[in-house]
Amino acid sequence: MNPVTELRAFLRAALVTPVPRDHRDPPQVLRRRRVVSVLTLLAGAALLWWSLQLEPGNPWFYLGTTALAGVWVVGAFASGRLYLGRGHTRGGHYARPIVQSLALGLLLLALFLAGALVVARVPVLAGPVDDLLDHARFASLPLVLLITVVNGIAEEIFFRGALYAAIPQRWTVLATTAVYALATVGSGVPLLVFAAVVIGLVCGLQRRVTGGILGPAITHVTWSAGMLLLLPPLLQIVS
After folding, report:
1. 23 Cβ partners below 8 Å, 6+ apart?
2. Is the pTM of this model over 0.90?
3. Distance CA 32, CA 166 (A)
């Protein structure tokens, strides 16, 4: 099998063809999911906006983002049952989508880093990104990495877990992607909103295929941790 055919087969298995499952909620559970999801979303969006308005180095930023992860997780589990999901394997069976999701996250990371080479040469785009990265430069990198990982997992637990399950099936991917992107608008960083659209769409498609949050969480964390570690030195090289 040539590389192009291999890539197409991989993307089809990871993002297109759903695995068999039946996760239908009774009406009372669905109502609870919707109420809890709306309340959680409002609280989380406000906390995210507040955190991103703080100056780099302000200890409240790290406390705020940690609290934000707690809001997403508590809201998600309060909404109802969550599922890990299963992915396709080469043998035609189903398993936890670990390797598949890791590979997808690395592919996204490579695409974004390649795009960063172009963005770095456009001051109006690079400036807000550089300001956002100052939050990592003015703190302990292990601490920021831990917060990044925890928040990535928490976001997927809520957006691809509780919120996804609360939306009518025909709109799940588009709606969760749009809401996830809108939650980042207050950051004032256009490329962060663009990244949220791409990550939200990919993770939403993964959720539709696997029926759970494990695959999206692995993909999201692989991408976000990689961007945190590799983007700052890459921007320094090209600047």
Report:
1. 83, 165, 211
2. yes
3. 9
